[in-house]
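S1.2 Input.
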Amino acid sequence: MTLLKSVDQKLFHTEIPYKPMGKYAHFLTVRLTESYPLFQTDGELNKARVRAGIHNPTPISRLTMFKRKQSTPERLVGRELLRNYGLMTAEDCEYNVKFAMDNPDCIIYGFAIGDSGSEKSKVVVDTAFSITAFDESHETFTLNAPFENGTMASKGEDGSKPGEVTSRINQQDHIKPQIFFPSIVTLKDPTEAGFLYVFNNILRTRHYGAQTTRTGRVRNELIGVIFADGEITSNLRWTQAIYDKLQAENKLNSHDPLNEDDAIAAATSAIETLLSEEFIVHTDFIGERFTSLLNEVKSLTGSEAGIKAILQQADTEAKAYNHKHIKQKPEGDKAKAGKASKAGVQK
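S1.3 Output.
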């Protein structure tokens, strides 16, 4: 069943292949913070010392968004949808505990279940880097814990004297709003339904990083999709090319946030330049051509009938792949393995 009219069906597989077949779909995403998220390890924001641009050799520190901090929230959104439409249950498939091995999440994003089996992820996400430097992209907050009377003064329940101001104060670095992380999400050997499944997950995901129930709001601005017979440029090189263009146009100001229109325009121009230097065959959906594709995808995912058709087709393909390529075990062995194993997730 064909779902998209704006994409040539030869760019998709009719079924999920077992071995790599050299078809790639690259989602060009600019992740934009809209609150104060935390991308951290061991209590500190993740950062890296790298070259500022391709042409500007000055080293700068940039905030980093590790791959798992990008892919995990997106696959969890997909799993939520599968449960909502009755294609997955929490009892049969629980993230990082046991995997059913026969649904779109498991087959597309991968799984590892000890001796019971594993499947390599077909979604490739690499570390993303902030366009602007670390020093101008984060802010240190002082955190406290007020009591029920709305003040920092204790009532004495915890052993302190009534009216005494407690020392429940801590400092934490947060990423500022309007910080941009260019990120290329690659889907290997896509079927049409698998492509739409991953596309929808990127569009729907709104929170990344730690404390996702309170902060971490991030908007994904997709600027294009590239179908190719190989991988394209890295996130770092794309970010460096964007930095060069913004600096050449005098659009970088350490005192003011980066203008979103300027960042998106520079990201589009930079990726077009980088693609012109590639040695691969590629079909580009950028600009008006991407707008047409995006509108078609939104019309599908914005209706119950459309999203059901995508999920059901993706589920049918996943179950066919499972039956054909994943070693089947008797029901008793499956249950035993599910209880005994501690799952790991393919990066």
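S1.4 Remarks. The first helix runs from residue 67 to 84.
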